[in-house]
Structure formats: C-alpha cells, structure tokens
Amino acid sequence: MNYxxxxxxxxxxxxxxxxxxxxxxxxxxxxSVSAAAVASQIAATVFPGSEGAWVAPLTGVxxxxxxxxxxxxxxxxxxxxxxxxxxxxxxxxxxxxxxxLSAVWAxxxxxxxxxxxxxxxxxxxxSVTLASKILFGLAMAGVLHYHSGLGAAERTLxxxxxxLDHPFxx
Length: 170
Description:
Blueprint: H1 3-29, H2 35-46, H3 56-83, H4 93-116, H5 118-123, H6 126-147, H7 149-160
Helix pairs in contact: 1-3, 1-6, 2-3, 4-6, 6-7
C-alpha cells in the first residue's frame, strides 16, 4: 500500500481532532465548562482517577489526538476495503464520513462512556458533543477530498480559471 495514503489518513484524522478541540474551546468560552476539564476527563477515561493531576489536560489532548489519527486511518482503511467490493458504488466520501462519525459519537456517548466515565458524558450537552463529531467528520473528509483525484482536479481548475467576474478579484 502507498505510504502517502496512510500519511494523508493520519493528517485527516488529526485535522478532525483539531476541529473538535477548536469547537470545544469555542464552546468553553460561553459556558461554565473549561476545555481543560474536557481534556482532563479524556485522560480520566483512559487513566481513571487522573483528572486532578496537573498533567491531565495535556495527557487528554495527547490521547485525543492519538485516537483522532487512528480514526482517520481506520476510516481510510474501511474506504479502501469497501472500494474493492464488486458492487461498491460510493459517490461521496464526505457524506459517509458524517454518517460514520455520527455513529462513532452514538457508540461513545450512549454506550461506552456512560459505563466507564459518566462524568465525561455529563460535562457537556449531547448536542455540543455531537456537533464536535460532525465537525470532525467535515474536517477529515475535507482533507481526504483535497488529496483525492477529484480534489486535485478541482484545485487545478481553480488555479487555471482566473475569471475577472470573481468577486474577490480586482
């Protein structure tokens, strides 16, 4: 398999993870929940009882980004496997990314996290956490689309097509 594909998959996952962190950071500006508390609860999910440690927020960010990269790789691996099926007709990976990330959210927030770290689930409303996963999916799919053949073709056309009727050109 092509090494470049896996680097793009990691980058896509990391971009999704950073989009989630940005969303939680914005949410924390207008709420009583701090982004550091969210990161600390991520650490506490993996290392129970660690949420009070001074290094917990940094550990949580590291765990989150590692899981994000893994999710990008898993998504791309699933896409590649799906495309090998004889009847596979996938029209839009972007829509699939939103469906998959919504399913990841449902499994995490409705099944896994309530059992292993209920405090994390209660930290923010479901709508905020679901929005973060949707933003993850959009960011991940954007990176994958940008690096796909279609994305490359669109970039080439955009760079060649310098029409004067574009509103941002003089």
